[in-house]
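Need a sequence for this fold. Nothing fancy.
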């Protein structure tokens, strides 16, 4: 059993059974059996079932948003908006289910050569606690749309929306065993990764965990896709629309309590951006309402776990002792009911230098570091001065500069004059410690299926360029 704790109050909330390690073989057997039948269905039937799932999730939006807010501590405004987007995401993948085709290859007129794309088989998804419902949808739906079965392990602390999603799949008529959610912590995750029945592993989480998973998966040569952390910059030139940029800076790092892989946690400001920008930023952050995630007026909820809150507090302390200056900090909630919740004060640091821990390490909490630059070259150097490379925001009205920056920044997703746009149609992939393997749009078709080539001779026999070996003597 895992006892779930409500992040807003720090109190135990409910118990969730953990999947027994000795049942993992059976989970894989069920998945493999269901996948064979699923892949043999007409593709249009798979597509229709997924359209039905989208409708069902539409009916469950409010329920899922409330579970997510209570389980993760993220504000209900945020989780409602996340849940409302999922039916459209499911419909996008439902549309793909009957549109994946192969090619013919003009290798030689005496041969009919073609390619097909086959599902991998059993996909293992392992996801973290920050966006549990969206990750569950993104792991399950594209994979089954393309003919796979999925075994999903949500984070131990936040399994509820993934479990509800698996139930919704059953309600929508998706066959038993095709989507299985297993619960528990790293031991259950490790058992999935080491299992020979795993055909591919899709991991989202901390980069060191990703490396451990890639090492363990290597024993069976199981391929992995890795969506890891980030230290993404928002880069602001003086010719940008500074009001819009300010909105995006605040939403880009304080949304979801800063617990976003794509958090814009480094603000790079050109020297000519007026001081009023920073003053306005500080005033906005000082006024953020930190409180109960289920209260509509809350801007920033607690962190998901006490451990993550403590990690953020330690990083704030380290930044201060390394010489960074706190330029803004929101208040903790005054409500005594929330006294034991896992709250962190949203914080802005100035006087940050590139070698400080706050400028280099992922916080995964509501903390922004501000640095200044004098020209494009310095902006690019600072932007790339990190081992991560997940995303970046560039703010300028100069089109040429926008493209030069986009070309030079080592990150998988660049936003120009906007931020935080994530959509199933838009591929994402990390650089460096942010991971590897692209997903989204056509990239998911490539990564969630494997290629097979078939070469058929129109007349039986070998081509002329393959030397014939002598036949055995018949004496
Ligand atoms: P984590 O790596 O500790 O845990 C993620 C998942 O892995 C959990 O389900 C956990 O139980 C499981 N796990 C842990 N050890 C395992 C092992 N040895 N074998 C198999 N499974 C194991 O990550 P976290 O702290 O929960 O999440 C935060 C991290 O996730 C941050 O670094 C964040 O940037 C990253 N993240 C990345 C993306 C992205 O799309 N790139 C999105 C969200 C979060």
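Here you go.
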């Amino acid at each position: 059993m895992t006892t779930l704790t409500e992040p807003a109050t720090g109190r135990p909330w409910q118990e969730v059974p953990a999947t027994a390690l000795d049942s993992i073989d059976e989970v894989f057997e069920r998945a493999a059996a269901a996948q064979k039948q699923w892949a043999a269905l007409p593709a249009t039937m798979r597509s229709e079932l997924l359209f039905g799932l989208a409708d069902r999730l539409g009916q469950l939006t409010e329920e899922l948003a409330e579970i997510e807010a209570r389980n993760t501590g993220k504000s209900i405004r945020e989780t409602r908006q996340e849940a409302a987007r999922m039916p459209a995401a499911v419909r996008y993948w439902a549309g793909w289910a009957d549109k994946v085709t192969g090619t013919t290859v003009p290798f030689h007129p005496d041969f009919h050569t073609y390619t097909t794309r086959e599902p991998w088989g059993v996909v293992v998804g392992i996801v973290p606690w920050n966006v549990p419902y969206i990750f569950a949808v993104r792991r399950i739906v594209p994979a089954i749309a393309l003919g796979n079965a999925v075994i999903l392990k949500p984070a131990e602390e936040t399994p509820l929306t993934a479990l509800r999603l698996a139930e919704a799949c059953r309600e929508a008529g998706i066959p038993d065993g095709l989507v299985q959610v297993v619960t528990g912590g790293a031991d259950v995750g490790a058992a999935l990764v080491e299992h020979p029945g795993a055909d591919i592993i899709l991991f989202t989480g901390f980069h060191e965990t990703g490396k451990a998973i890639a090492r363990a998966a290597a024993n069976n040569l199981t391929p992995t896709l890795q969506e890891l952390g980030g230290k993404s910059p928002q880069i602001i030139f003086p010719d940008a629309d500074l009001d819009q940029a300010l909105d995006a800076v605040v939403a880009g790092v304080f949304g979801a309590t800063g617990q976003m892989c794509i958090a814009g946690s480094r603000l790079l400001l050109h020297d000519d951006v007026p001081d009023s920008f920073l003053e306005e930023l500080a005033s906005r952050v000082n006024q953020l309402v930190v409180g109960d995630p289920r209260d509509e007026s809350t801007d920033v909820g607690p962190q998901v776990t006490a451990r993550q809150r403590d990690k953020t507090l330690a990083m704030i302390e380290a930044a201060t002792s390394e010489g960074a200056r706190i330029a803004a900090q929101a208040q903790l909630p005054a409500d005594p009911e929330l006294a034991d919740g896992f709250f962190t004060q949203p914080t802005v640091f100035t006087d940050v230098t590139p070698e400080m821990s706050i400028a280099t390490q992922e916080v995964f909490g509501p903390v922004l570091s501000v640095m200044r630059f004098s020209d494009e070259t310095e902006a690019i150097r600072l932007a790339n001065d990190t081992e991560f490379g997940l995303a970046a925001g560039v703010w300028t009205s100069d089109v040429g500069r926008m493209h030069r920056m986009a070309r030079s920044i080592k990150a998988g997703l660049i936003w120009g004059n906007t931020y935080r746009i994530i959509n199933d149609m838009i591929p994402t992939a990390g650089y460096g410690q942010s991971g590897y393997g692209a997903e989204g749009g056509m990239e998911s078709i490539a990564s969630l299926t494997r290629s097979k080539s078939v070469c058929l001779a129109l007349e039986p026999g070998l081509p002329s360029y393959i030397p014939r070996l002598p036949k055995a003597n018949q004496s």
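For context: The longest strand covers residues 111-119.
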